[in-house]
């Protein structure tokens, strides 16, 4: 599951090389969304800092 | 050479720089057995998000939307590196991984994401790159195409490496080895 953003970017770059701009943009959105969702799943502990 | 072509070349150089960052992380992982933690993996994904914006500029010509995409990727990756830097910012709380020229990789990542945001904003100041005549866009520069292929292979390599390290689920917070190699899954798949 953690590899999803990488495969998403791989496909986005493949679409770029193939001249498919729209597909590349959609795949980029999917990759960044997956990355942020995974970040949310991993950022569970509170930070020991005083702000 | 038109202004648009000049900026396509500049974006190609940016892609080479992103590739250099990812190669450095890979060399540290493989040569020094410094396994990437989950947050480290997500920061690599952030750099690859920036690379998509650079690649779009190289292939389709510079557009403000492509720079916007680079900035958004940098902010997403930067959020991850801010979190990891804050996790280890208190002296004596420990750190993750090896230091590289005095800073840990997540601190370098934070600096580099800030550089990406600043660089994208500065490049967007040059309006002439966005002006297009009626003629069709020339082919992407060779350096740019090669750089896109290089980053594409690095994305695939990182994907495969992450599957080997974490399998199909979430990665452990402090990985000690490659899950699919250590549990014999790879040997079974290869029929040994």
Summing up helix and strand content along with how strands pair, one would put the structural category of chain B as mainly alpha
CATH class identity of chain B: Mainly Alpha
CATH architecture of chain B: Up-down Bundle
What is the SS-derived class of chain A? mainly alpha
Order of SSEs of chain A: HH
Shape of chain B: globular
Can you describe this structure?
The complex is a heterodimer of chains A (51) and B (192). By secondary structure, chain A is mostly helical. Chain A has one domain (4-42). Chain A is 71% helix and 0% strand. Chain A is built from 2 helices and no strands. The model of chain A has no long low-confidence stretch (mean pLDDT 93). Chain B has 192 residues and is mostly helical. Chain B has a single domain (3-189), classed as Up-down Bundle (Bromodomain-like). Chain B is 67% helix and 2% strand. Chain B contains 7 helices and 2 strands, in the order αααββαααα. Chain B has helices at 3-31, 38-60, 64-87, 105-123, 142-166, 179-182, 185-189; strands spanning 99-100, 103-104. A two-stranded antiparallel ribbon of chain B has the order 1-2. In chain B, a hairpin with a 2-residue loop joins β1 (99-100) and β2 (103-104). In chain B, α1 packs antiparallel against α2, α2 packs parallel to α4 and α2 runs antiparallel to α5. Chains A and B meet through α1 and α2 of A and α2, α3 and α5 of B.
Task: Give a short synopsis of this structure.
Chain A has 51 residues and is mainly α. Chain A is built from 2 helices and no strands. Chain A has one domain.
């Amino acid at each position: 599951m953690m590899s999803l953003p990488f495969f998403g970017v791989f496909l986005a770059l493949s679409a770029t090389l193939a001249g498919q701009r729209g597909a590349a943009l959609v795949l980029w959105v999917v990759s960044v969304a997956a990355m942020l969702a995974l970040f949310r799943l991993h950022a569970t502990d509170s930070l020991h800092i005083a702000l | 050479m038109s202004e648009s072509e000049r900026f396509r070349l500049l974006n190609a150089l940016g892609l080479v720089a992103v590739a250099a960052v990812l190669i450095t992380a890979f060399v540290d992982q493989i040569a020094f057995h410094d396994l990437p933690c989950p947050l480290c993996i997500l920061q690599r994904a952030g750099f690859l998000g920036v690379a998509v914006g650079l690649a779009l500029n190289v292939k389709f010509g510079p557009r403000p939307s492509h720079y916007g995409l680079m900035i958004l990727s940098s902010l997403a990756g930067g959020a991850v590196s801010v979190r990891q830097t804050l996790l280890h910012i208190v002296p004596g709380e420990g750190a993750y991984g090896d230091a590289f020229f005095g800073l840990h990789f997540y601190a370098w990542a934070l600096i580099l994401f800030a550089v990406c945001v600043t660089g994208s904003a500065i490049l967007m100041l040059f309006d002439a790159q966005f002006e297009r005549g009626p003629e069709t866009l020339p082919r992407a520069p060779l350096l740019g195409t090669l750089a896109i292929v290089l980053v594409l292979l690095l994305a695939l390599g990182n994907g495969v490496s992450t599957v080997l390290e974490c399998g199909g689920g979430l990665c452990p917070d402090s990985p000690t080895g490659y899950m699919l190699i250590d549990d014999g899954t790879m040997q079974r798949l290869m029929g040994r």
